[in-house]
Amino acid sequence: MDIRAEAARRRTFAIISHPDAGKTTLTEKFLLYGGAVQEAGAVKARGERRRVRSDWMEMEQKRGISITSTVLQFPYRDHVLNLLDTPGHRDFSEDTYRVLAAADAAVMVLDGAKGIEPQTRKLFEVCRDRGVPLITFINKWDRPGRPPLELLDEVESQLRLVPTPVTWPVGSAESFLGLVDRRDDAYVRFTRVARGAGEAGEEQLDLTDLLAEGRDGTTADEELQLLDAVGADVDPETFRSGESTPVFFGSALTNYGVRLLLDGVVDLAPSPTARPAADGADRPLDDPFSAFVFKVQANMDPSHRDRIAFVRVCSGRFERGMVVTHGPTGKPFGTKYAHSVFGQERETIDEAFPGDVVGLVNATDVKVGDTLYADPPVEFAGIPSFAPELFATIRARDTSRFKQFRSGIRQLDEEGVVQVLRDPDLGDQAPMLAAVGQMQFEVAVHRLEQEFGAPVELAPNNYKVARLTDDTSAPALRAMSGVRVLQRADGAWLALFESPYWLARVEADQPELRLDRLVAEGLAG
Questions:
Q1: What is the rounded CA–CA span in Å between residue 164 and residue 135?
Q2: Which element (helix H / strand E) includes 43?
Q3: 298 - beta bridge partners?
Q4: Cβ distance 35 to 386 under 8 Å?
Q5: What is the pTM of this model?
Q6: At what angle do helices 148-159 and 215-230 cross, to 10 degrees?
Q7: Positive or negative CA dihedral for 280, 374, 360, 133?
Q8: How many whole angstroms separate alpha carbon 129 and alpha carbon 118?
């Protein structure tokens, strides 16, 4: 089988947005247009038994937000699309960062009235750091919003990205009539479908029909001429290098522009390419199987109580049952229980190709960042942890449940729900949880109590900033007031400071001490 041909059919991408910009709705509508659901909200092969929404955790369903990530694969135009759904809440940016390690591109969703919001900016910086090219979707165009040219200016000024509109709106809010596809100068006029449950009706017209739309058509025609005059056309090279972003307009709720956006993902997003290994050499697509773990999740289905490691295939062909090598330990690893995961649903998967995501069940020794391979050996670079900004000591309230407490803490640490820091002299008696946002603590407490049966108490600490240190610097730091040195499960030492000013003073007075910044320090909020 031609591995490269299969890889060329893949598009592996994520959707990022500020909360409430419409990410979950857009995800659902992509599945609708991809034929994975018969109507928005109903899984195809299973009728209406379960919602298609990828938000499966109880807290997500109660609060109406995404705080975990899942994988959704569906066909479209003879391609295979792997949609890596990311958390929508800002407190879970670190999970998004890990997911973006497995994505070849991302769709950035903006609210047409609000433009770039704080979480958008933070996630954009994460994409830039990972070198992930961005397609921009300006959503909610069926509601009152800002002028489209003003939104383009904001993208360029705040994100330093050159916006290159692919589609352009005709009208807005209640008079949103359709979109001009600048690739072929086609005017697509939409017809609303009740509740957005089915594909929007589309009438294919041409640019000469714009002027018949009255004031809205005239305005759109003038704006299109301006875009042509300044040369705001898609440039695949600058898009893939992260210098420009193709822009699409529409409304995920009414399905206006969703098909055009999905076409844009297929036409513009890169297919998988050879992935650089930790030593700098590329692993060719048609080399034997290799993959890396970007997410670990336990108890996705309470009836199973299992642990799934999500791996992104980087090279070769994956075949269920093959025995591969677990990079960090060098031990053989069986893949008999391999699944594709569609929200909460899972199905056995027999083969996969570069760009695909495979869920390996009961992968007890596998952690985020690990490499799996068939000879020849390869090691992909690990996924760094975010700089935590909130710290709290956690203890078991019921000493008779300490075994469950310790097991739960270890599991949440391996999943990356929170970072767990330990004093080697105390072990798991009273570890410290380190998080980017407060909701990470809430999820950790909820899961420890509900999934592991371990009631806990959480005591916030006054530490404000963490830096990576080492064995040489640790003793001097440990002797200082206002500083605590703790260890992560991977063996790394973190020095916690009660004040950033004290950190600055230590850095100035003792430059020989190792105090390395962690990823995304200061980007929270």
A1: 10
A2: strand 42-43
A3: 307
A4: no
A5: 0.83
A6: 30
A7: positive
A8: 17
Phi, psi of 349 (to 5 degrees): -115, 130
| Parallel/antiparallel/unpaired status of strands 201-206 and 186-191 | antiparallel
Measured over the CA atoms of residue 507, residue 511, residue 515 and residue 517, the dihedral's sign is positive
Q: Which two tokens stand for residue 185?
A: 């100068």
For the cut 80, the answer to whether the pLDDT of residue 63 exceeds it is no
For the packed helices 93-100 and 118-130, what is the interaxial angle rounded to 10 degrees? 30
Q: 255-284: buried (b, 16+ CB within 10 Å) or exposed (e) per residue?
A: bbbbbbbbbbbeebbbbbebbebeeeeebb
Q: In a 3-state reduction of DSSP, which class is residue 391? A: strand
How far apart are the C-alpha atoms of 451 and 447, rounded to whole Å?
Answer: 5
CB atoms inside a 10 Å sphere around CB 4: 13
Query: What percent of the chain is predicted at pLDDT more than 70?
Result: 88
Residues 6 or more apart whose Cβ sits within 8 Å of residue 231 = none
Distance CA 390, CA 371 (A): 30
Burial, 347: exposed, middle or buried (Cβ in 10 Å; 0-12, 13-18, 19+)? exposed
The token duo for 500 is 């950033």
Give pLDDT tens digits for 426-462: 888 899 999 888 888 988 999 899 889 999 999 999 9
pLDDT beyond 60 at 371 = yes
Residue-averaged pLDDT of the chain: 87
9-47 residue pLDDT tens: 999 999 988 878 888 889 889 989 988 765 554 333 333
pLDDT of residue 55: 44
Strand 275-276 to strand 244-249: parallel, antiparallel, or no bridges (unpaired)? unpaired
* Residues 208, 116: Cα–Cα separation, whole Å: 33
Mean pLDDT is highest, among 76-90, 250-264, 336-350, for 250-264
E strand or H helix that includes residue 217: helix 215-230
